Structure formats: C-alpha cells, structure tokens
C-alpha cells in the first residue's frame, strides 16, 4: 500500500511542481510515506537477519555433532497434537520416526486399545477415552505409509465375530488425523451393522486413503501408484480385511438389467432414475407378491433385495418397534447389535486369530511373507 501511494504521489508531484502550495503538501506526505516504508523494510530485514542467524547456528551445530537434523520442526502450534495435525504432516512425522506401518488393536486381556509404537500414545489415549463415542468395540485400526505414493493408507475393522471385515475403499481429503480416524471408525461400524442385518457372515470394515493435497491423484500414473500401495497394504493384512466391491452395472457395460418389484410406485421411481443411463438396457416390471419367476432367469449376477432374510428381518424389526414402543431405527440397531456378536458357524474367531498373528509376527516392523514375491519392489518409504 505504501509503495502504491508513493507511485501515484510521485506522478502528482511531477504534474504539480509549478504549484508551490500543493507541491509542499505533496513533499511532506511523500516524506512521511518514505518513513513508513523505511520502517517496514527495516522490520523485514531484521526478521530475515535473525532467521539467517538461527539457520547458520543450526547448521554449525549439525556439523559439530555430526548428526543430520531435519529443518522441519514439529513444535509449532498446529503440529503439537498428532490428532489435530494434517494427515500429510502425520506422514512426515511417521517417516521422521522411521515408522512405515502402525496399528491400534483391542487387547482382550487388558480390555483396552494398545498402539504398536510408544510415539503414538496420544492416539491410543484418544481411542481409550470413555467419552469417545466413535470407538465402539472396534477390533483394530491398521495404518501404513504408501511405499510409492507416500499416501496415508488405513483399514478399520469392527466386530469380527461374524467373519472377515468387509468394506470398500474411499479416497478423500481430510482436515486432520482425528477427522481421518473418525470417518474410518464410523464407516466401518456402519458397514458392519448393514452386513449383520443382511445376514452376511462378515464383520465391518472400511479402507481409507488420504487424498493428496496437490491433486496428484488425478494423474493416471500416480493414481496407479496409490492403488498398488493399497494392494500391497491389503495383502500384508493376511485376509483379516477383504474388499467388498460395489458394481455399478449400468456403468460397467452390462448388456441387460431386469428388475421386478411388487410396488408400482417403486418401479416408476426406478425407471425415472435410471432410464437416461440405461439407454434401452433396463427393463422393469411390476409383479405380484410371491412371484419369484425372476429366479429362473439366466443371468450373470442375481441380487435378491427383498426376499428371504431381508423380508423376514423387516417384519421382525417392525414387530419389535411396536412391542417395545420404540422407533424402527432403534429396533434395527438393537437387532444389529445382537446379530453382530454371533459367532461364525464354521470359523469362529478366525479373523481375530489373524490379527493376533500379525501383531506377534511384528507386522508393524515390516515382517511378512509376501515381501518374497518376485514382482514386489523392495525399496521402502525411508
């Protein structure tokens, strides 16, 4: 602002130099502005002089001790807390501690969450906090730094009594590590509840990838690196977390999609929503209750949505809500809570055993069998 004022006042001064009075006023203002600029410049110069002096002292100390120090400090106000730190900063912190993998797992003996590294005590305490409503009987949280992309990768596992954790992967930006953890905990429980209500013998799971700030993920080459990293991360978990794929049939080249429903309104809504995308490949028909002729259709994918378990579960939920005088949502949550604790009929506690073997086998220190694959790049994140 001061330099802009000087520029315009200089022009004014040249135009009015034949007018003594105005010229005197202009000169006076010009001198005052120069004083302001001189003070600002002096402050900036002092700041850079001090910074240069501290940097030189820091370098001399490094030469004297023979230690290589990082110029990045983690003592700033934004970085004092790991939970409030940006995930990118958290990745830098992990690298500075030579940590490429870490976990937070529930210990049935101590009845609390235990972290893989003492440097992560803050997050461990947050997960064990009784007031933390997001951590609700989760079995484990596994985190890793992508070897190729340096992205923060995560797998969140909730209640594994029914079997392996199943869930999709989401890549999205997060404001902080706490935000990242909250989303993973919340979504893994949601998927576990849905699976339990659907009668599936799987536990709740969710994979999260922190979206890079510089939008590198939109570049095909870098995006491929991210997926390779998550594939290696997923393989290292030895099957305790399995990806559940959701297929958009109309987006993936399906030749024909046939849908039936007993509700004429549902059929109309479905047709209106998908007609433009289907381009003649979608056929919807209203059928009578009990008409299961669609089961006999020759198809590649058959997805029954309202028969069998789901139909009877809906009846049970409505009945419980009426008997207990509670909402349907509360009744569904009660049922899901009970169903999610049922043991898998063939492999009870199998997934929990896998987690225990990962911990005992020093997974967090990079010890696993799959590194012996021929096509695996052996250089690490350090």
UniProtKB/TrEMBL annotation:
UniProt-recorded name of the protein: Leucine dehydrogenase like protein
Organism superkingdom: Eukaryota
Organism: Argiope bruennichi (Wasp spider)
Regions annotated as coiled coil: none
One annotated GO molecular function: oxidoreductase activity, acting on the CH-NH2 group of donors, NAD or NADP as acceptor
InterPro entries assigned: Aminoacid_DH-like_N_sf, Glu/Phe/Leu/Val/Trp_DH_bac/arc
